[in-house]
Automatic annotation (TrEMBL):
PANTHER family: ARABINOSE-BINDING PROTEIN-RELATED, SN-GLYCEROL-3-PHOSPHATE-BINDING PERIPLASMIC PROTEIN UGPB. This is Extracellular solute-binding protein. The keyword Signal applies. It comes from Paenibacillus agri. It is found in: Cell envelope. The keyword Signal applies.
């Protein structure tokens, strides 16, 4: 591959046509014509407008993108067709920490250009690995003319720097086994269903003698649904029980502790969801929605191919239920960053911009992702997407419209915040719910101290 600097890429040759004027007599610089009626040979407006433009010439560039995705080849080809001098080479992650991949490529003298992020953005920024995208975005016509959802960059900003763009909006829904519901005389719920509806239906379709339960024994039930319910009931401003400015966890407050008990009772009181131990004793059948033995589960775009190919029952999707004050959904923004060591930053940013083109957005909808752009044409495209044929498309649109974004990428000390494991142990195990209090207090103190140290 021919290597070149960013400066040389910006100086790609642009040829300007030269139109030679036939000389008038006397070589005068004035517009005066002689009496010999010498014809005016200056080009007409029509001739100038019809002159073919000379294409810009570019040196070939290969962009190296660190990614664990194995399904983006078609999107790469779409980009390469739009920018034929650019080739994309994916660097697979293969379970290796991305920071190690970046370091090894730079040490080899072949630095990567773009990376997905596998941990918090703060670590990448503090180690000087990623660019501040603010100046690129401010001069980008794509970002100037595109309408994004409220809070689009909020989880990607730290100390005033835009450290990444959301490459993909990963939506989540409540998966519904319509056949199991129908077996127990329950119709598909409406899109404005409530958490009380969810709990009531789960109990109705549970038949332990048949090995059938209302809710799948999966971590996502508490990971996604519990913190969403806390927002829906008005007890938290953000997912994972965080306050308005993402500085403190409210997990140990009495109202949210009661939300935890509500989910715990799905196992201990209602019996509509099995504990981990009981599920494993029964062969772990209820841990997978695809088995057809549970009524509800939480799923995102990653489950759709398997469901469409292998499910032997009629399934559909619903938005997350309504709470006491609202009906929020849940989404994850997959961050994509421009590496500071890239030798092709301008070309690399073209890939970031391309994510928000109509063709890329439609391709992502076809894969089950949300549109990341507010656009009537893209909203209407959900109705055309093959992946949603015969399904509850209005629920998909509503889930996108109401989605709350998972935080954490720019929250100091996020990896030390033990909200997930402790809640799994409480809801699906036998851990004491009161353990939440000291765990939360410890993290709240630590995150404030870290935040102060990073200012």
């Amino acid at each position: 591959m021919k290597k070149r600097t960013v400066a040389s890429s910006l100086l790609a040759a642009v040829f300007t046509l030269s139109l030679v004027l036939s000389g008038c007599s006397g070589g005068s610089n004035t517009n005066t014509k002689t009496a010999t009626n010498t014809p005016d040979t200056s080009p007409t407006e029509s001739a100038v407008n019809n002159t073919p433009k000379v294409e810009e010439k570019h040196d070939p560039v290969t962009l190296q993108i660190i990614s664990w995705k194995d399904s983006y080849n078609d999107l790469y080809k779409m980009f390469e067709e739009k920018y034929p001098w650019i080739t994309i080479e994916q660097i697979p992650v293969n379970s290796q920490p991305i920071m190690e991949i970046i370091a090894s490529m730079e040490a080899a003298g072949t630095p990567a250009d773009i990376t997905e992020i596998d941990s918090d953005l703060i670590s990448f920024e503090q180690n000087g690995l990623i660019e501040d995208l603010t100046p690129y975005i401010e001069k980008s016509e794509v970002f100037k003319t595109t309408k994004f959802p409220d809070g689009f960059f909020d989880t990607m900003i730290f100390n005033g720097k835009k450290l990444a763009i959301p490459m993909v909006d990963v939506p989540m829904w409540v998966l519904v086994n319509k056949d199991l519901l129908a077996k127990h005389g329950v119709n598909m719920p409406a899109n404005d269903w409530t958490y009380d509806d969810f709990r009531s239906i789960a109990k109705k379709v549970t038949d332990s003698n048949a090995g059938e339960y209302g809710i799948t024994t999966q971590a996502e039930i508490q990971m996604r649904m519990l913190s969403t319910k806390a927002i829906a009931d008005g007890y938290a401003a953000n997912l994972q029980y965080l306050n308005e400015d993402l500085t403190q966890s409210l997990l140990s407050t009495p109202d949210i502790m009661n939300e935890v008990k509500w989910f715990q009772e799905l196992v201990t009181k209602d019996g509509s969801m099995q504990s981990n131990a009981v599920s494993e004793a029964d062969g772990s059948v209820t841990k997978e929605f695809i088995n057809g033995k549970t009524g509800f589960a939480i799923g995102g775009d990653w489950v759709l191919p398997n469901l469409k190919e292998k499910a032997t029952f009629e399934w559909d999707v619903l938005p997350f239920p309504k709470g006491k004050v609202s009906q929020p959904g849940y989404t994850i923004y997959g961050p994509l960053s421009l590496l500071a060591g890239s030798k092709h930053k301008e070309e690399a940013f073209l890939w970031l911009e391309f994510q928000f083109s109509k063709e890329a957005q439609k391709w992502k909808i076809d894969q089950g992702a949300n549109a990341s752009v507010v656009d009537d044409e893209l909203t209407a495209y959900y109705d055309q997407a093959e992946i949603w044929k015969g399904k509850n498309i209005e629920a998909v649109k509503l889930a996108r419209e109401n989605a709350k974004i998972q935080p954490g990428l720019t929250v100091p000390g996020w990896s030390d915040y033990n909200w997930n494991n402790i809640l799994n142990d409480i809801i699906f195990g036998d851990r004491d719910i009161n353990d939440i209090i000291p765990e939360t207090e410890t993290w709240n103190k630590k995150t404030l101290e870290l935040r102060d140290s990073l200012k």
